[in-house]
Write a structure and sequence with these properties.
With about 170 residues, the chain is mostly helical. The chain has helices spanning about 1-10, 20-30, 70-155. The protein has a domain at about 70-130. The N and C termini lie far apart (about 110 Å).
């Protein structure tokens, strides 16, 4: 009997078939212990290039005549300068992509507004047309009923004068 209990206690292997299963499992694990603090990682910060002086005084060339110690200094300065240029290029590309993205968003927004305005005008036009049609139908009915009423009133009393309108 002890062996049967051991088999029941073993957890079944969990098979994750899609992203919703993964998300469900993570939520279940989180809800097992709600008091446990959740660690939310911060966004990675952009790497900045340390301030490279604009004017470097003792700039040495890569010639071998300067000595072996000077070559290491030159190589270090060259590496820093390349890093600075690369950073500036990446920053410019990122700004350009951001600008293009924002322009695209604005363009899409304008197009959506134009479409909604066009549809709104069409809707209002339809609404006005609907209002006019019943008015025409009602006007015909009113004319017919008024002509019938006038015929009846003439038959009943021909001596009555139409009421005067005050202006």
């Amino acid at each position: 009997m002890g062996e049967e209990n051991d088999e029941k206690e073993e957890p079944k292997p969990i098979i994750i078939r899609n992203s919703t299963d993964l998300q469900r499992l993570k939520l279940e694990k989180l809800m097992k212990n709600p008091e446990k603090p959740v660690i939310i990682p911060e966004r990675p910060k952009d790497k900045g290039v340390p301030n490279v002086p604009d004017f470097v005084r003792n700039v040495m060339g890569s010639s071998a005549g300067a000595g072996s110690g000077e070559f290491h200094v030159y190589r270090h300065l060259r590496r820093k300068e390349y890093a600075r240029q690369k950073f500036m290029q990446e920053k410019a590309e990122k700004e350009q992509l951001d600008d293009e993205y924002h322009q695209k968003l604005e363009e899409n927004k304008k197009q959506a507004e134009e479409r909604t305005e066009k549809k709104r005008l069409k809707r209002l036009k339809k609404k006005k047309a609907k209002k006019r049609k019943p008015n025409k139908v009602q006007a015909k009915e009113v004319k017919e009923s008024s002509s019938e009423d006038s015929e009846k009133s003439e038959e009943e009393d021909t001596s009555e004068a139409p009421p005067e309108m005050s202006v």
